[in-house]
Amino acid sequence: MARRLLATTIATLSLIAWTAMAQARVPLPDITELVDKDGPAVVNISTTKTVKAQEGMRELFQRRGGQGGPMDDFFEQFEKHFGPQGRGGGQGGKGQKQRSMGSGFVISADGYIVTNNHVVDGADEVKVQFKNNEKPLPAKIIGRDAETDLALLKIEGKSGLPYLEFGDSGKLKVGEWVLAIGNPFGLENTVTLGIVSAKGRIIGAGPFDNFIQTDASINPGNSGGPLIDLDGKVIGINTAIVASGQGIGFAIPSNMAKDVISQLRDGKKVQRGWLGVSIQDIDENTAKALGLDSTKGALISSVMEGQPAAKAGIKTGDVITSVGGQKVDNANDLLRRVAAIRPGESAEFVVMRKGSPVTVSVTLGERDAKKLAQSGRGQEGEDDAAGEDASASALGLSVRALAPKEAKAIGMDKAQGVLITEVADGSEAEQADVRPGDVILEVNQRPATSPEEFKKIVGEDGKKKGVVMLLIKRQNQTVFRTVPLADAK
């Protein structure tokens, strides 16, 4: 009797628990009305362009974003389904016709359409296909922005078209439901549902990476299509995939896209703020060397002469922690915040300088690709050693004075600093990416005027902090490298 009562009690409790869980479970959203409302504003974009032999879409995009990233996976899948895009073919320099496809969405009743730059880059002809419309319509490229991979098209002579509105991607939360509509593999108006998996992803596609990651299925042909929230607003533009990983797609945040599209629609080229510095992230050792409490901020590794930062008094070794009252988490964050400021406008920069905060007002210049193009300098031959080799065993490297000809070979006006002649295998210096041929200009923000001064700073200030931060001249750029002292652990 007791056993039967116990069994009945357990069964009753289990039923109550299951019922409570079922009631608490959040149901999947019903997106049928949303698809009916927003689907007609999503279009299929097809392009035709002439390419030279051996210069396909993959090669064109790699010149922008480099190799080895998610876009390589994209093109592998694209070519698997649609065939090689412009690889080979064409004789006598005549080139060949290359056809590609993607997605887009209408943003105004009079026919403005947003898509990705890589969908229409170099196109001789662009056509737009609406849902349930047999005849494709010609579209004009109004403007493109390669750095954010966005483009704006226009269908002439149309009115009353269905269109989508941008939402606020800044309010987006990880875990929210999102909807992707596009033309994967040429299958028009395909709908997929998922959630926001992450925000602020950096995938190496461009200088302003800040992608929304989603598990809503995105495939070749989805590029340029909208990522929509449950209010029917566009909160992202689907752009990239990782073909080797299931359920991983990336979208450009709407808040970034709105400003770019607005400038393109006004017939302007996209303008971005320019500071004129080289920057890098801060690791724990660097923070320790700088006397900082955290790794937040962007470290200035060099300041370009005559540029806005130099005019405002920003110095090498400063750590920028906020711009215009907005905190700066890392170098990528600083790049985006500076770019969002219009050239000619001023902003307050807070920098940490030798442990103390300093506020600097900077009038931004204009970001220009020509300013970013730098040419490397080759060595012009061996010079006689300009002094005795001095070993810094705690770092695992050897240094000597820099000869004038060596300085000239790497673009320096005069010989200053010490030359690294050897880096021990497996040493702290090697692990910190310090290399033979690097020139150490500063140690813990003090000039390395000679091998003796270098050893002195390492032995005194370095030993006290347990770490040294080296300002290094490497070819035509300067970088910081932070090395913990082996005997300080």
What does this structure look like?
This protein has 489 residues and is α+β, with helices and mostly antiparallel strands. The chain has three domains: 28-270, Thrombin, subunit H; 273-372, Roll (Pdz3 Domain); 390-488, PDZ domain (Pdz3 Domain, Roll). 24% of the residues lie in helices and 32% in strands. It has 13 helices and 28 strands. The chain has a seven-stranded antiparallel β-sheet. Strands 22, 23, 24, 25, 26, 27 and 28 form a seven-stranded antiparallel β-sheet that branches. The protein is elongated and about 80 Å long. It starts with a helix and ends in a 5-residue tail after the last strand. Mean pLDDT is 82; it is low at 63-68, 86-92 and 373-389. Residues 260-337, 384-476 form the PDZ domain. One of its GO terms (molecular function) is serine-type endopeptidase activity.
Topology diagram in text:
Layout: H1 2-24, H2 32-38, E1 42-51, H3 57-65, H4 70-82, E2 96-106, E3 112-115, H5 117-120, E4 125-129, E5 137-138, E6 140-145, E7 150-154, E8 177-182, E9 190-201, E10 211-214, E11 226-228, E12 234-241, E13 249-253, H6 254-265, E14 273-274, E15 277-280, H7 284-290, E16 298-303, H8 308-312, E17 319-323, E18 326-327, H9 331-339, E19 346-353, E20 356-363, E21 365-366, H10 369-372, E22 390-392, E23 397-401, H11 404-409, E24 418-423, H12 428-431, E25 439-443, E26 446-447, H13 451-465, E27 467-474, E28 477-484
